[in-house]
Amino acid sequence: MMDLRIVDTFPEFLSFWKRVQEQPPEAQVQAWQVDYMSRWPELLTDQIEDYRSQGLDWRQIAVEKVFPHLPERLDAMQAAHINLLNICLPLFAQAQQAFGLNTPAVFVIYVGIGCGAGWVTTQFDTPAILFGLENIAESGWSGAEAIRCLVAHEIGHLVHHHWRDQARKPIGSGPWWQLYEEGFAQYIESTLVGSTTWHQTLGENGGDWLAWCQSNQAWLAAEFLRRVDSGESVRPFFGSWFDLRGKHETGYFLGYEFVKILANALPLENVALLEDVEETARFMLTHMVDYYASGDNLP
């Protein structure tokens, strides 16, 4: 079995925050970059590049959307930090056993500028999962059950990337790939936690999130198809700062349903190595619209 290394930057954040908590957000963001995050330059670069790739001003977002809310979210970040330290190692070991995950990994715990509660990338030349405490707290996922589900979801991405890397299959991009990739991670999450209590049901979405998605599956599939075909952004399906009819991250449900159908017919590793992602996903969503709109069930 390969090792898991945890890089915990939160103690350094707390020291930094004591020094700047009374300063205005503009000064806090500048100090965040220079005094705190500069100790992990690769982590800093990943966050800045994430916004730059979207044509967004990371400083403006940090000043307006993130740092003004840190005081009210500090307790939730502290709770999330403790739960991550308790859950990451045993859940990673469980995933190694369940999916033959024979790669080293780095889990990084940090307070960032809103790039995500969790995301898979590379740090220190090693596959890595980044856990942004500020987004975890904002989404209401600080409790132990939500953290367990979130970690399982990000491990799902790690499994997916690892299997594709072993098979020399590239990681894709675009809306169809995002639907597939998030759906695969959601499927791994449900497998590891042994239930359908996904992390999306435990935070700001409310406990009726899954039931709402199931009841509106035909509309969600049709709306995704419409947005892709018209060239509109599918960000409202995935981004935590966006919503569709008041529900956040409904694309995770839609992707899960698509992947679940494939996983019922194919070995999971074959699902992870899917090549014709757009063609397959479009076919599945079109049939979701037809079957669920007519009151029938998908086979």
Helix-strand sequence: EHHHHHEEEHHHHHHHH
Supply the helix-strand structural class.
alpha/beta
Q: How many separate helices?
A: 13
Q: Going across the major beta sheet, what is the strand order?
A: 1-2-4-3
Strand-helix topology:
Elements lengths: L3 E5 L1 H11 L4 H12 L4 H12 L5 H9 L3 H30 L5 E6 L7 E6 L2 E7 H7 L4 H23 L8 H19 L15 H7 L1 H14 L19 H16 L2 H5 L4 H17 L6
Helix pairs in contact: 1-2, 2-4, 5-6, 5-7, 7-8, 8-11, 8-13, 10-13
Structure characterization notes:
The protein has helices spanning 10-20, 25-36, 41-52, 58-66, 70-99, 133-139, 144-166, 175-193, 209-215, 217-230, 250-265, 268-272, 277-293; strands at 4-8, 105-110, 118-123, 126-132. With 299 residues, it is α/β, with parallel strands linked by helices. It folds into 2 domains: 1-171, no CATH class; 175-299, no CATH class. It has a 4-stranded mixed sheet with strand order 1-2-4-3. The longest helix has 30 residues, at 70-99. The radius of gyration is 19 Å and the shape is globular.
Can you tag this structure with a few keywords?
globular; alpha/beta; 4-stranded mixed β-sheet
Summarize the structure.
The chain has 299 residues and is α/β, with parallel strands linked by helices. Helix content is 61%, strand content 8%. Helix 8 (175-193) crosses helix 13 (277-293).
